Structure formats: structure tokens, C-alpha cells
Amino acid sequence: MNSTQNIYDVIVVGTGIAGLSAGMYCGRFNLKTIVIGEMPGGIITTTHLVENYPGILSMEGIEMGTVFLEHAKKFGAELEFSKVTEIEKKSGKFLVKTASKEFTGKTVIFATGTHHKKLGVPGEKEFNAKGVSYCALCDASFFKDKTVCVVGGGDSSAVETLILAKNCKKVYMFVRKDVLRAEPINYKKIMESPNIEVRFKTEIAEIKGKSKVESVVLKSGEEIPMEGVFVAVGWTPVSELAGKLGVELDGAGQVKIDRNSQTNVPGFFAAGDVCDSAFKQAITSAAEAVTASYFAHQYISKNEA
């Protein structure tokens, strides 16, 4: 394994909105920074259009990811597109390993994000961004006056359904169990909405179409014409490496941070969807990353004074 001889001020793990925001701001603080991750631009690049980021009226997800990438590079952040396999802390420094390289840093900003939980049914992968979505807030406006469904039975699914109901002609809500685990106020709104139909003990077996989603087949065998499928069965934080280092996680496996984006491990900061923040959006990820960058700079300055 090749080992870099330089010691970085900051090693950012994750190349999505949070990671690249951290890379850009750390560069502005004149910190020697490297951003390491597998997916240039992160999960935002899988979104068709982004229209809820303040100051940007409309931008394709792939373009936004590219802009953030270029912004980080402009201020001197190095980029390494590899999977981080291990993070250790030795003698006050962090050792970050990929399959072929090792990097040493004074601090780490952990911004690995989440993986959306998938249904795992035929058609889901094929029609991703072609009618299959994982974010109603991001994509609801593209399904105006269309018939869509939401898969999931929790409060986040209920919120997704209510967002869609404001735009769509009809919204089916497919709940696997016989109960909708939504907050009372959201439950009431759903049950009173004329264009929402909740179906309990209902699961999708297949998503069908040609170039885009056209219908869903239920496990009961029923096929329903459908123009959009919103999957809201939860997400999985990519936090395993942090947990192995001793970083405190919550019950859902999310990294616990304070208002300074600091974890319980000194010098180890975190930002974005991997954290225990209640609201997960590109703008909040960027804000947490900027906060992490500032306090990483403060941490380094204090420890080198």
C-alpha cells in the first residue's frame, strides 16, 4: 500500500454536497485538504432537477454535483476518487486508508451520506430517475397532475405523500403493514385528502414500463397504471467506519454531532445526511460542512498554538 508523505490539515471523507462544501471551505481557510470518495458529486447527481437550493432556480443534479466539484478544486482541495476502507487515530493524527493508499490528517470531516433503502423489485433500478424517485420534496413538481404512489408506512412516508398530493392528480400510499405509523396531524390530513388512497397490507412486486414508469404490479397480482413511484422505506447511514473508530452513533446508526459539527472523538467532525440531523437536504448538508470546516480550522489553530 502506497503511503503519502504529506500530512493534511483536513481529510474529507465523501465527495457529495457535504464533502465538496467542506473541501471548498477548508481551502478558503488555507488548510491543506484532500477530499476522498467514490462518487463525484454524490447522490445529488442522480436527481433530475434541483429547484429547492436557495439562489439556484433550477439546475440538473449532475450539473450541481459538477459545480460543487469545481468549486472545491478552485480553492485548492485535492480530490481522490477511491473507497475509504479504514480510518484509525494514532498519536493524535488520523490515518485514512483506501485499497491502495494511506493518508494522514490532523482532522477528519466525515461526510459519507446515506444509501436509500431499496424495494429490491424488478424495474426499480431500470426506472430510477425515469419515474422512480426517493425524494418527493425534490421531484414532486415534475409529476404535476399525474398519478403516483408512495411506498412506506412511516411518518416520513406520510410527509412525502402530503407533498405529492399538492401536485399530483392522485396519490396511492402502499403500506406493507395494517397500520400507518404517522404523526396524528399527518395521519388526519392523509385520511381527509380527497386525492390520497391508502392501501394497507399492500406491496409492489414489479414496476413496469418502456422508457419510463407506466404501471406497478402488486403482490396480489393487480396491475395499476402509474406514472411515478416514490420509495420512502427509509435510508441507511454510511457510518460503519466512524463507528469502528469509536464515534458515537444513535440508534439508527447516524453520527451524533453537536452544533459545531463535532463528534465525541476530538478532531473528527461530520456533516450531511450521515449525521443525526432531523432535516436532510443539500442546503443543510452544505451548512453543516461549512460549520465543520470552520471548527476544524479552530481545532488545528488551537492545537498548534
List the helices and strands and how they pair.
Elements: E1 2-13, H1 17-28, E2 33-36, E3 49-50, E4 59-60, H2 61-74, E5 78-80, E6 86-90, E7 93-97, E8 101-110, E9 114-116, E10 132-133, H3 136-139, E11 147-151, H4 155-165, E12 170-175, H5 184-192, E13 196-200, E14 204-209, E15 213-218, E16 223-225, E17 228-231, E18 235-237, H6 240-245, E19 268-270, H7 282-303
Parallel strand pairs: 1-2, 1-8, 2-5, 8-19, 10-17, 11-12, 11-17, 12-13
Antiparallel strand pairs: 3-4, 6-7, 7-8, 9-18, 14-15, 15-16
Helix pairs in contact: 1-2, 1-7, 4-5
Tell me what you see in this structure.
With 305 residues, the protein is α/β, with parallel strands linked by helices. The protein has seven helices and 19 strands. The protein is elongated, with a radius of gyration of 21 Å. The relative contact order is 0.17.
What are the defining features of this structure?
single chain; 305 residues; alpha/beta; FAD/NAD(P)-binding domain; 2 domains; seven-stranded mixed β-sheet; five-stranded parallel β-sheet; 19 strands; 26% helix; elongated
Q: Could you give the distance between the termini?
A: 33 Å
Mean of the pLDDT scores?
Answer: 95
Number of helices: 7
Q: Spell the H/E element sequence.
A: EHEEEHEEEEEEHEHEHEEEEEEHEH
CATH domain class of the largest domain: Alpha Beta
Q: If classified by CATH, what would the architecture of the largest domain be?
A: 3-Layer(bba) Sandwich
Q: What class would the helix/strand composition place it in?
A: alpha/beta
Please count the beta strands (DSSP E, at least 2 residues each): 19
The CATH topology of the largest domain, please? FAD/NAD(P)-binding domain
Low-confidence stretches: none
